[in-house]
Structures are given as structure tokens and as C-alpha cells.
Amino acid sequence: MSDKGADRKIDYIELNVADISASKAFYGEAFGWTFTDYGPDYCEFHDGRLTGGFARSDTMSSKGGPLVILFAIDLEDTETRVTKAGGTIVRPIFSFPGGRRFHFTDPDGYELGVWSDK
Questions:
Q1: What pLDDT score was predicted for residue 34?
Q2: In a domain, 2, yes or no
Q3: I need a labelling partner for 10 at 20 to 30 A (CA). Which of 21, 71, 72, 105 fits?
Q4: pLDDT along the chain (118 residues), means of 10
């Protein structure tokens, strides 16, 4: 990914799902998405324009809802900015294949994530 113009912009959508295989079958058949597996609990999808992921989870909202993920060049600085602006860190910075990220809730309670490849 190019850093130019991407800092603190929406970059990725993640859906919590009960069964990754079933989600792949549905979205593949219905929309023609392709997939890259990263172990039994995570799969990245490509819809031809946007990249996102399916994360296996035992807890999901019955109404669904994606996890919107923003990109940041400086993850620590962005975490500080989020906190200073009134957000609440709900999952501190952690590593995953491809980089690091954290999750926060905004003042209305919406959870979002921020990731960096550094």
C-alpha cells in the first residue's frame, strides 16, 4: 500500500462471522469475491475494488455490522489523537500478520480499528 494520501483514511472493512467457509461460499457465489486464507480464524476478501476480511467470532450482533478500519502511518500518534479527541481504546495496539493495529470506540460507541504496516 502506498502511504501517500492514505494516512488516517478508511482502508479496510472487517466482518465478524461464525463460519468463514460459509461466508466465503455466500460472498463468492453472490458477488464473485476472491479470498486469501490466513489460518482458521481469518480470511481476507477481495471484491475487485475493496479489500476486507472475515474474522471468526463467537459473538456477533444479530444486526451485523462491519468493523471499519483506518490506516495510519504512525500508529502510536494516531492512538494518542483518538484518546485526546474523546475516543476510548478498547483493544490496545497488537500485532497481526501484515502489521499492527488497535481498536477504539468513538463518543457514540461505534467501534473502529486503525492499522499500520510499520
A1: 97
A2: no
A3: 21
A4: 69 90 91 93 92 88 79 95 93 94 88 92
Question: What local confidence, expressed as pLDDT, does residue 1 receive?
Answer: 45
| pLDDT at residue 5 in the model | 60
Spatial strand order in the sheet of 99-105: 34-37, 42-46, 51-56, 9-17, 67-71, 111-116, 99-105, 88-96
Q: What DSSP character marks residue 112? A: E
Query: What DSSP line would sit under 31-57, residue for residue?
Result: H--EEEE-STTEEEEE-SS-EEEEEE-
Q: What angle do CA 90, 108, 46 make, to 5 degrees?
A: 65
DSSP category for residue 2: -
Does this model's pTM top 0.90? no
Q: What is the DSSP letter of 84?
A: H
At residue 64, the pLDDT reads 66
In angstroms, the CA 20 to CA 22 distance is 5
83 and 115 together in one domain: yes
Does some domain include residue 3?
no
The range of the structural domain enclosing residue 19 comes to 11-65
